[in-house]
UniProtKB/TrEMBL annotation:
It comes from the Bacteria. It comes from Advenella mimigardefordensis (strain DSM 17166 / LMG 22922 / DPN7). This is Quinone oxidoreductase. The keyword Ubl conjugation does not apply. One of its GO terms (cellular component) is cytosol. Keywords: NADP, Oxidoreductase. Residues 12-323 form the Enoyl reductase (ER) domain. Its EC number is 1.6.5.5. SMART domains: PKS_ER. NCBIfam families: PRK10754.1. One of its GO terms (molecular function) is mRNA 3'-UTR AU-rich region binding. It is an enzyme of class 1 (oxidoreductase).
Length: 326
């Protein structure tokens, strides 16, 4: 089957992304072939485009999409042709009209979830699930700090925190993004473009600071995140939107209160069908009960992928961004 896809043969700016056409063969024994309807855009895609994360060239981009099963491999038993499916983890290359994906990464999506919503929420929603329910299991009484609260992951985090009874302090870059985060459940926001994050956290917590910081920004927020933690608090560094955190001095963790640090990723949290189903079921239940609404604020075509990457990298986006293929 013929399929258009985005491919890069070198690392660099948005100009390295090219739309090419390829023939997609039959799926292997353990794969399913998906005619994709929507693709999720995530900051990790930029990391691979620029070479921050290494991958042998040439290669595609993207890890998250939704669509309809066209064919199944001989060893696949939990899916069949015609199933509505999605995935949030896969081999790189989700920016495509048709592709073969390991069946272990793919699951059926409920009828109440559109393809656009599924593509927007699988990676981002499962990220919040493992952050809040596995990395540091929130109990419902905490006050936490979450960076980039108006982004795709951030808006899901705001809603999930509110549903748990957690007070989420979210950092944002503008009054408009503050309004969006608050409307989605943030307890308070800090505009880091004009406010001192550490001072505001101290004020909002009456000097107690927070037990956990969730930081997907990276280099630019590393030091101030540590300064917001209580003694023996946990720094969850789960992304590098501003660049990678390097040269970590473990002595700093001691001097700031015997702090803990972890650098988790989604993959190990959903690396079996059982783990993926458990995490997805919890996410879908949150959406079904309307505790989480999937907010898609930007839609682009495959041909406009450069514009989509530019908007995401410049922090002009809010909520989720999807590439639509219909």
């Amino acid at each position: 089957m013929s399929s258009r896809k985005v491919e890069i043969s070198e690392h660099g700016d948005v100009g390295v992304m090219k739309v090419v056409t390829e023939e997609v063969g039959a799926p292997a024994d353990n794969e399913v072939q998906i005619v994709q309807k929507a693709i999720g855009l995530n900051f990790i895609d930029i990391y691979y485009r620029t070479g921050l994360y290494a991958q042998q060239l040439p290669h595609g981009l993207g890890f998250e999409a939704a669509g309809i099963v066209e064919a199944v491999g001989s060893r696949v038993t939990h899916l069949k042709k015609g199933d509505r499916v999605a995935y949030g983890q896969s081999p790189i290359g989700a920016y495509a009209e048709v592709r073969n994906v390991p069946a272990v990464n793919v699951l059926k999506i409920p009828d109440f979830l559109s393809f656009d919503e599924a593509a927007a929420v699988m990676l981002k929603g499962l990220t919040v699930q493992y952050l809040f329910r596995q990395t540091y299991r929130l109990q419902g009484h905490e006050t936490i700090l979450f960076h980039a609260a108006a982004g795709g992951v951030g808006l899901i985090a705001c809603q999930w925190a509110r549903a748990l009874g957690v007070k989420l302090i979210g950092t944002v870059s503008s009054p408009e993004k503050s309004d969006i985060a608050l409307a989605h459940g943030a307890w308070a926001t800090i505009d880091y473009s004009k406010e001192d994050v550490v001072e505001r956290v101290l004020s909002l917590t009456n000097g107690k600071k927070v037990p956990v910081v969730y930081d997907g920004v990276g280099k630019d927020t590393w030091e101030r995140s540590l300064d917001c933690l209580q003694p023996r608090g946990l720094m969850v560094s789960f992304g590098n939107a501003s660049g990678a955190v390097t040269g970590v001095n473990l002595g700093i963790l001691a001097s700031k209160g015997a702090l803990y640090v972890t650098r988790p990723t989604l993959g190990p949290h959903v690396d079996t069908p059982e783990k993926l189903k458990a995490a997805s079921d919890e996410l879908f239940d949150m959406i079904r009960s309307k505790k989480i609404k999937v907010q898609i604020d930007q839609r682009y075509s495959l041909e406009d992928i450069a514009e989509a990457h530019q908007a995401l990298a410049s922090r002009k986006t809010t909520g989720a961004t999807v590439i639509t293929l219909d």
